[in-house]
Amino acid sequence: METKIYLYPIWIRLWHWSNGLFFLILLFSGLSLQYSAEVYSMIRFDIAVSMHNVSGVILSIAYIIFLLGNIFSANGGYYKIPKSGFHKELFYQIRYYTLGIFTKKKAPYPISIERKFNPLQKLSYVGAMYFLLPILIASGCGLIFPEILIHKVFGMSGLHLTGLTHIIAGFSLSVFMIIHIYFCTIGKTTTSNFKSMINGWH
Amino acid sequence: MYKYLFCLATALFLSLLFNQPVFSQEGKEIPENVIENQKCFQCHGDRFYSYYNDWAERGVRDRMNPFFVLDSAQFYQSNHKTFLCTDCHSSDYENFPHDGLLRMETKFSCMDCHGGDETFAQFHFEKIEEDFQQSVHSILHNDDFTCWKCHNPHTYKLNARNNKNIKKVIVYDNSICLSCHADIDKYQLISKLTNPNILETHEWLPNQALHFSKVRCIECHTEVDKDILIAHKVLPKKEAVRNCADCHSQNSLLMATLYKFESFEKRNDLGFFNATMLGDHYIIGANRNFYLNVASLIIIGFVLMGILIHTVLRFITK
Q1: Per-residue pLDDT for B245 more than 60?
Q2: Paired residues of B29 in beta bridges
Q3: Residue range A10-199 in CATH 2.40.128.50
């Protein structure tokens, strides 16, 4: 019998699910705002504004907790990208997902207490959590407090550029979330990874 | 004494003979109306005025009614800057002290000069008048509410049509509304109602301060008229725009109001819808980019297709 490892402590699970929930609220309210119409909007505009603002603030606070958790616990170590050989690791992982998985090959980088993420996960999670999400939060702050923005950037409205940045970062993270959810179905069973994020055991 | 009078007469004769224009210290010619109007501004541009009281037989220095004090600098930047005061006011005002009965004089209305004149055809004054007659201001207050309640003839100048800075257009136009709706003294000239606190009545508006500085009152409180640049049919408050998406959408109402003069319906080179809004503003729901929309749909399409193919292959090779 394979031994289970306790991979997801309670604070990570709480952060993960709240992050997911509020990101979904942000996604749907954001889509509703961006594509609002006089006749029909997915969510009434003023309600969508409140939902988006409140959820954005909560998600930002959750992100700070995530950052602090990663700084003061061992969890931050899982996100460190090795200085050499990482591109090869990525190649092996991509080859596994595109070919090996269909020919019953073993995963090249199975999960262990030392390695929570495979190379592809590591790259995408670092990109999402340390690049895209900070951009999303910073541009969101700029849209809530437009008086702090630079008025003109190369002749274009700073507010409009911030809006565009916010939308592009939000869209990219939404794509990440779709792929993330799909890849979570690639476990021992389709639902095993989801259960792990509920009970903490992998 | 005779020598002094001779010099004065000679100077007067010469000035009449050559009829030379008067120049300012900078060497610019001072228009005739400015010289004439200075006689009025001498008192009406100051807080105090002096006159000789024939009854008391002594000179008097008194306070000028603050509502009759005018800023000559503003007047000479206004649309009516070339006017003589007596073009609109009785020439009897040239006598000083003024006859008390002159205050009863009937004031001109805009249409007395601007109506039916081809020179002003581009402004559609007749249509403005028609819309104004249907406005809540006119309906509720009849003849008490004249053009002058909003457009001070001494300071009014064309704004939206001449000003490329939208922010300045907004400040200027909103100050017209606020001159009554934020000033109980002027408001109660025509109404016994207590001036409502507009901050409280607009409490429902998300990001109230942002809206107040980025759009004009008339965006929501007037009915758009395609024939005129500035809508003049002010609606009852129940009919004011309250649906956010009327502005926050691709067919934004703002394109027919605030951005009407510089708006163009086609996307610009960068593919932005409502591109004229991009200069200084970002209006959620109204600023969209055609190419980004298409790119995002293609990306989502590829992602979903990839997931579908991967799922099917996993199922087949299970």
Answers
A1: yes
A2: B23
A3: no
> Does the beta-carbon distance from B288 to A34 stay under 8 Å?
yes
Domain of residue B210 covers 115-242
Q: What proportion of chain B, given as a percentage, has pLDDT over 70?
A: 83
User: Is the minimum CB–CB distance between B199 and chain A shorter than 8 Å?
Assistant: no
Name the domain boundary from B242, B276, B296: B242
In a domain, B264, yes or no: no
pLDDT tens digits, residue range B9-33? 655 554 544 455 556 666 777 888 8
- Which among A35, A97, A146 is the nearest to B210, CB-wise? A146
- A46 contact residues in B (CB cutoff 8 A): 204, 206, 244
- B101 with B141, same domain: the answer is no
Q: Which residues of A touch B211 (CB under 8 A)?
A: none
Q: Do B303 and A175 touch (CB under 8 A)?
A: yes
Task: Among B167, B284, B302, B304, pick the best mutation site for testing chain A contact (most A Cβ within 10 A).
Answer: B284
Residue B277 forms part of a structural domain: no
pTM above 0.80, yes or no: no
